[in-house]
Design goal:
Radius of gyration of chain B: 57 Å
Distance between the termini of chain A: 24 Å
Shape of chain B: rod-shaped
Number of strands of chain B: 19
Oligomer: heterodimer
Strand content of chain B: 25-35%
Largest interface: A-B, 26 and 34 residues
CATH architecture of the largest domain in chain B: 4-Layer Sandwich
CATH class of the largest domain in chain B: Alpha Beta
Largest sheet of chain B: 5 strands, antiparallel
Helix content of chain A: 40-55%
Largest sheet of chain A: 4 strands, mixed
Number of helices of chain A: 3
Strand order of the largest sheet of chain A: 1-2-3-4
C-alpha cells in the first residue's frame, strides 16, 4: 500500500503535490494542506496528482470541496499531471467538466 | 457494567491500603529493630562504665589490704585509718570502713573509720560475711538492711595475713540515684539490680520511681561482674535513639499512602467511568448506525409485474463503521417502477444520514412523477459537500414493466450492466457530477430491454480495486456476468457478489438486479 504523502515546495505555498492512496484516511490531511495553499495563492493553486496511485469517492469529494472553496474565494484550483486512471474516474463520475482541462490525460 | 468504576476504585483502595499498612508496618519494624540494637549498644557501654565504677570501689579495698600485709603484723592500724579516711565520709565512696583480723573462727574488728556500720561485730551475718570473704578470691558484696536503712556492704579478705576489710555504701531509701552523669546513661532510664535477677528486692539504684519498675517497652539488659556476684543493668530509652526520620517514617508512609491511595482510587474511578462512557457512546453509535442501515435498506421488494427483483448489500470489512451505499425500488402507477442505486462517500453515521436524505429526497421526486434527469437536477441543488462533507453518486431510473423501456440518469455513478441471453453490455450513460458538487443538469438515457434481460446496477465497491483502474474492474464484472448460467435476478446478484467480492474489501457494496420477463 502506497503511503499518502503531501509535499509543498519550500518558500511559495502556491502548489502542492500529493502521492499514494488518496482515500478517506488521507482526506483530512489533504484538506488542511490544500486550503492553506488556497490562502497563500494569488489566484491559482496547483495540485499535482502525478504520483497518486488510487483515489476513491472520499478523495474525489475532497477535490470537489477544495474546488468549491476556491470558487468561494474567487480563485481557481488547477489539477496537474492527472494520471490516466484518475482522469478516467473523473469521466465515470461526471467530474471532468468540473475540473476543467487541467486533466491532461 | 455500571458498577465497574466503583469496583475499580474499591480495588485500588484496598490494594493501596494493604500496601500502605504493610510498608508502614515494615518501616515500624525496622525502626523498632534499630532501636533495640542501638539500645543494646548503649546498654553495653553503660555496663562498661559500671565495670569501671566497680573498679573504683574495689581499688581502695585492695590497696588497704596490701598496706596491711606490711603494717598489720606490727599491730599498726594507722596506715589503714589514713588510707581509708580519704575514701570515707559525706559525698565520698563509702560511709564507713572497717579492718578485721581473723582469729580462728572469730573475727575481730581492729580499726574503723566513718559512721557506725550496719554490720556490727559479733553479728552472725557479719561473721558469715567475713568468712565468705576469706573463701573468695575477689571482693564480695551483700545488701544490708537495718532499721529501714540500706547499704551495700563490700568485703575483701587476705587469707595469708588473716586481715579483711569491709566498707559500706548507703543506698538512698527511694533508690533514686544517678549512678553517674556519664554520657553513657544520658539517653537511658535504668535500673540496677544486685544479682542475676531483676527482682524488686534486689534493686540497687534506679533513675525512675521504683514503683514504676520494671521498665516497660523496649528494654535491654546486661550483666556486669560485681565481686562474687553480678550487677544486672536493665535499661529503656528515654527518647528515640535512631534518626528522627526512622521514627516518623511509618507515620509518613501511612499518611502518604492513604492520600496517594485516595487519589489513585479517585483517578481510577474517573478514568474507568470516562472510558465506560466512551464505550457506551461508541456502542450506541454503532448500534444506531446498524439500525439506521437496516431501516434504510428495503426488507422486501415491491411486486412489479413481469419484473424479477433481487438486491444485496455487503458491508465493508474495515472496522464497524457502515458505509453509505444504498438501493431502492418503488412501484409507480401504470406498471411503471422507479429505482435508485447510490453511494455516499465516507463512512459512519454522518454518511448514513446523508444517504437517508438522498434516498428519501430522490424517492419523493420520483413518486411525484419527475423524470430521473429532473430528479437529479433538483437534488443537485439540495446537497452541498461544503456543508455535509460528502459526495453522493446515484443512478436513477424509471422503467415500464409493460414495454421493457427504461430511462436512466446518472450523477457520477458507474453505468449499469445489461445482461442479455446472448451477451452483456454496459449502458452508455452521460454522467453528470455527483450530488454535492453544486447545481447541475443531467442527461437521460433511454433503452429497451428484451425479454429475459437483466439490468444490473451496482456501487463501485463491486468493481473497484486499489491496484487497477476502474475499467479493469468493470470488464471483470462484464466477464463474470457473461460467464454465468443463471435463471433469476437473485442468482445473478449472488454470483456477481460472491465472485468479485474479496474478503478484505474495505468499501461496502450495494447491488440491485431487475430481470424483465417480457410482456404477458
Amino acid at each position: 500500500m502506497a503511503e499518502f504523502v503531501i509535499e509543498t515546495p519550500a518558500g511559495a505555498r502556491r502548489s502542492l503535490a500529493v502521492s499514494g492512496e488518496f482515500d478517506l484516511a488521507a482526506v483530512e490531511e489533504f484538506l488542511s494542506a490544500a486550503l492553506g495553499c488556497l490562502e497563500d495563492a494569488a489566484d491559482v493553486c496547483e495540485i499535482d496528482l502525478g504520483a497518486v496511485t488510487f483515489i476513491d469517492s472520499s478523495g474525489l469529494g475532497a477535490l470537489v470541496r477544495v474546488r468549491k472553496a476556491a470558487h468561494d474565494r474567487g480563485k481557481e484550483v488547477m489539477l496537474t499531471n492527472v494520471p490516466p486512471a484518475v482522469s478516467r474516474l473523473f469521466e465515470v463520475t461526471g467530474l471532468t467538466e468540473a475540473f476543467g482541462t487541467g486533466s491532461g490525460g | 457494567m455500571p458498577r465497574r468504576p466503583l469496583v475499580v476504585a474499591v480495588s485500588i483502595a484496598v490494594v493501596g491500603l494493604v500496601l500502605t499498612v504493610a510498608s508502614s508496618w515494615a518501616a515500624g519494624r525496622v525502626d523498632r529493630n534499630t532501636e533495640q540494637r542501638l539500645l543494646q549498644v548503649q546498654t553495653d557501654q553503660a555496663g562498661t562504665v559500671l565495670s569501671t565504677a566497680i573498679l573504683l570501689v574495689q581499688q581502695p579495698l585492695s590497696t588497704a589490704l596490701s598496706v596491711e600485709k606490711v603494717a598489720g603484723p606490727m599491730g599498726d592500724t594507722s596506715a589503714f585509718t589514713n588510707l581509708m579516711s580519704a575514701q570515707v565520709g559525706a559525698g565520698k565512696m563509702f560511709e564507713s570502713a572497717s579492718l578485721w583480723q581473723r582469729h580462728g573462727h572469730r573475727m575481730k574488728r581492729i580499726a574503723q573509720v566513718g559512721d557506725a556500720p550496719l554490720m556490727r561485730p559479733g553479728d552472725k551475718t557479719t561473721v558469715s560475711f567475713l568468712q565468705h570473704a576469706f573463701g573468695s578470691k575477689t571482693f564480695i558484696v551483700r545488701a544490708v538492711t537495718h532499721d529501714a536503712h540500706s547499704s551495700i556492704a563490700y568485703a575483701q579478705a587476705d587469707a595469708s595475713t588473716g586481715f579483711a576489710i569491709t566498707a559500706e555504701r548507703s543506698v538512698p531509701a527511694n533508690r533514686r540515684a544517678r549512678v553517674d552523669n556519664n554520657s553513657a546513661f544520658a539517653q537511658l532510664n535504668y535500673a540496677i539490680y544486685i544479682g542475676p535477677k531483676a527482682d524488686a528486692a534486689a534493686l540497687s539504684t534506679t533513675d525512675v520511681a521504683p514503683s514504676s519498675l520494671p521498665l516497660a517497652g523496649t528494654t535491654a539488659r546486661t550483666k556486669v561482674p560485681f565481686g562474687d556476684t553480678v550487677l544486672t543493668l536493665v535499661t529503656s530509652p528515654r527518647e528515640h535513639l535512631g534518626a528522627p526520620l526512622s521514627q516518623r517514617l511509618p507515620l509518613i508512609l501511612l499518611i502518604g499512602g492513604v492520600l496517594f491511595t485516595a487519589f489513585a482510587s479517585g483517578a481510577g474511578y474517573q478514568l474507568t467511568r470516562g472510558r465506560q462512557a466512551v464505550e457506551t457512546l461508541y456502542g450506541e453509535q454503532r448500534d444506531l448506525s446498524e439500525r439506521l442501515q437496516r431501516a434504510l435498506l428495503p426488507q422486501s421488494h415491491p411486486a412489479i409485474p413481469n419484473l424479477d427483483i433481487a438486491a444485496e448489500y455487503v458491508a465493508g470489512a474495515q472496522g464497524v463503521d457502515i458505509g453509505g451505499d444504498w438501493y431502492s425500488i418503488v412501484g409507480l402507477d401504470d406498471g411503471r417502477y422507479a429505482f435508485v442505486v447510490g453511494d455516499v462517500s465516507g463512512r459512519g453515521i454522518d454518511a448514513v444520514t446523508v444517504m437517508a436524505r438522498a434516498r428519501f429526497t430522490i424517492r419523493a421526486y420520483l413518486l411525484d412523477g419527475h423524470s430521473p434527469a429532473a430528479t437529479l437536477g433538483k437534488c443537485s441543488r439540495q446537497f452541498d459537500i461544503s456543508e455535509d462533507g460528502h459526495l453522493t453518486t446515484a443512478l436513477v431510473g424509471v422503467g415500464d414493466s409493460r414495454t421493457g423501456e427504461v430511462t436512466i440518469a446518472n450523477a457520477g455513478h458507474p453505468a449499469p450492466l445489461l445482461v442479455r441471453r446472448d451477451g452483456v453490455e454496459f449502458v452508455t450513460t452521460t454522467p453528470g457530477p455527483p450530488l454535492g458538487t453544486g447545481a447541475a443538469t443531467y442527461a437521460s438515457t433511454t433503452f429497451t430491454m428484451t425479454p429475459g434481460t437483466t439490468l444490473l446496477c451496482f456501487t463501485d465497491g463491486l468493481v473497484e480495486r486499489r491496484t487497477e483502474d476502474i475499467d479493469t474492474g468493470m470488464q471483470r464484472l462484464a466477464t463474470t456476468a457473461a460467464g454465468a448460467t443463471v435463471s433469476s435476478a437473485d442468482e445473478l446478484v449472488h454470483h456477481a457478489v460472491s465472485t468479485l467480492r474479496t474478503d478484505d474489501a474495505r468499501d461496502d457494496v450495494a447491488v440491485l438486479a431487475m430481470r424483465w420477463a417480457g410482456a404477458r
